[in-house]
Known about the structure:
This protein is mainly α and 155 residues long. It has five helices and two strands; from the N terminus they run H-H-E-E-H-H-H. Helix content is 58%, strand content 8%. A hairpin with a 2-residue loop joins strand 1 (50-55) and strand 2. The protein is flat. The mean pLDDT is 78.
Amino acid sequence: MSNHDEVEKVGYGKPPKQHRFQKGQSGNPSGRPKKRKPVQSMLTAFLNQKRTVERNGKKERLTRREILMNRIFLLGTDGHWQALKFMTEYDSRVIAGMEAKEIYENRQREREQNDEKFDEMFRRLLDEDEGEDEASEVEPTSQKPVAAKPEKLLG
């Protein structure tokens, strides 16, 4: 064999041997990067952490969110316009959330009432069907049903 026969073809999908993956070695050694937490969930976790604070001479455990809201409301009542603006916007969102909750609860109550009405109607229908079955058992008919003639059906 000559040296010419030993040369491998190189091209699309066939890289030179020295550039191919080595046996037992992954093409992605560090693997897929871990998914990052969204900023919103990190912020929520941070704001939900409890801290011990002293208010009116008493120690209380409050979340950072509660501490922050108390501070903003205190600033707002002292006349800081940005805190006042935040308070009004936050208050309107809370009120809108409460209204949405009330609407949801009202709809839930209506569904439950409709379900009760449906159940009652269904029970009445079942009671009527049972009454008809008992009446038909008392008065058996000896006549067989007669099929109507086609001329009578057509009119």
